Amino acid sequence: MGTGATRSLERVAAAMGQLESAPIEFETTCDVTNGGVLLALPALLAEGLLRFTSQLYQLPKGFYGIESIFLLLALMALARVPSLEQLRYQFPGEWGKLLGLDRIPEVRTMRAKVKLLSKDMGLAMRWNAELAKEWIARQNATELYFYCDGHVRVYHGDQTELPRHYVARERLCLHATTDYWVNAMDGQPFFYVNKEVDPGLIATLKDDVIPWLEANVAKTPEQQQRLAADARVHWFTMVFDREGYSPGLFEELGKKRIAILTYHKFPKADWGSEEFASHQVQLSGGETVTMKLAERGSRLSNDLWVREIRKLNDGGHQTSILTTNFQAPMTTLAVSMFARWSQENFFRYMREHFSLDRLIDYETEVIPDTVLVVNPSWRQLDSQIRSKAGKRHRLTAQFGALTLSEDPTDAQVQRFQQRKGTLQEEIAAMGLEIDKLKQQRKETKHHIPVKSLPEQDRFTRLSTERKHFIDTVKMVAYRAESTMASILRQHLARGGEDARALLRQAFQTDADITPNLETNTLTVRLHYLTQPAHNRAIELLLAELNETKTVFPGTKLTLIYKLGSI
């Protein structure tokens, strides 16, 4: 039955199909490894980890219930167990004590459970959508800002030849797939869409992100009245980087009453320094800084009128921002634009601590025939044009560098003229070749459907359902950790990443677990941490967690958190 298995009769009943799921039963235990991760349970439940499981997911009868599986996956993420495979190196009995079971499933069983939960294509996206609607509705800000950016997920395997993407963090073009994430101003994730063939940010905004937001972001009655009364009032604001710069897109979103906030891709001459004024602004993290800002109206290439805001830094560089948000103050918009780095920090943190780029399985799927990809013939012609244009540039440089001495001989003049003439002929011939190739490229389709690719150029995509399912669990875990970190920051001399570091330490600290069936309580006593200051901060956090009066799923036991060994 496996190491640590003690519920023999229940396991036999489950093997015979006579057990819906094993009952959750806790025993008094001391020094449970990673017991501190149970501190995250109130936050996980508040973020909706189990809210939609019964509606969307189900498992056949067996020893491990669906709630136990979801809890285990979330607690693994918070305890920094990077993958299901790493469960081989964890103590199954110790983890079982955290869930009210004798032991957790072995890796093979967990893989089977996750495969069953991911058998219906699109179900993980539905679950993510239900959670995202709740998370968006919880935003307390008077105005909604949605940040959209692509995250390139590199693939080093050999199951398929994925298209190459430029990976900025590695400065290389590598086989990869792109996920476009939508986050809040503070970096909290809402949802993402996967693109096995990256159409670019503009196309993804038009075809995927904006339609999703239109369908799922509710308008309050007050907002509906303001939208009807004033044509310049917007619904919400989309924030993205220069990759999404498109006056046509800005105009299209404006018709849908969606404002944009982005960097100017083609700023004109610098403004005079006398136009800039110093403003005290509060960043999304709470820090107050001084910014030198100025604003003008600006007309884009399609005659769209927008606000242009510029920030002047100490070195004299001016950063230009464009927006169609005509209600928010200049300072608010500047802070909102520069808060885009919160999303970059989210990607970095998720890669380092939640294994965002890790493969969940090694399966591949057929790409839908309607997906458009770059035509290999067009790519070959484009490559030839670039190569020959580079050669012509070098020949032109040689032509310009040819000079004569102040007092040349007749032989030197003759060689000079011959060399000049030869270079001119080569440059002219190269120009004709380039023009011919450009005409061929113009007559060749840039994009074609996947089904039209030659057999040697066809590829499949990485399986998406299980990846999206696990990533949604990680989103819930990240948001839960963020909620706890925001509480801890109030009690630490140094906030910021110190709060998250302290939580990581607490999650991996041992704890004592004591159930009391008479009072229906489950006491989790976290062992002392390494510093008195950290202990004081954790005690204040535990006091707030106790106020939630969270009941452990599948039981009637209310969680009580304490600090110190028995």
Account of the 3D structure:
- By secondary structure, this protein is of the alpha+beta class.
- Among the domains are: 1-119, no CATH class; 124-353, Transposase Inhibitor Protein From Tn5, Chain A, domain 1 (Alpha-Beta Complex), CATH 3.90.350.
- Helix content is 41%, strand content 19%.
- The protein is built from 17 helices and 18 strands.
- It has helices at 8-15, 41-46, 53-56, 66-78, 92-99, 107-117, 123-137, 201-216, 221-229, 247-255, 330-338, 341-353, 376-401, 410-443, 465-489, 497-507, 532-547, and strands at residues 29-32, 145-154, 164-167, 172-183, 189-195, 236-239, 258-263, 277-282, 288-299, 305-312, 318-323, 364-365, 372-374, 447-449, 461-462, 511-516, 521-526, 558-563.
- The strands form 4 sheets. Strands 2, 3, 4, 5, 6, 7, 8, 9, 10 and 11 form a 10-stranded mixed β-sheet that branches. The protein has a 4-stranded mixed β-sheet with strand order 1-16-17-18. Strands 12-15 form a two-stranded antiparallel ribbon.
- A hairpin with a 5-residue loop joins strand 4 and strand 5 (189-195).
- Helix 7 (123-137) packs parallel to helix 15 (465-489), helix 13 (376-401) runs antiparallel to helix 14 (410-443) and helix 15 (465-489) packs across helix 16.
- The chain is globular and about 110 Å long.
- The mean pLDDT is 91.
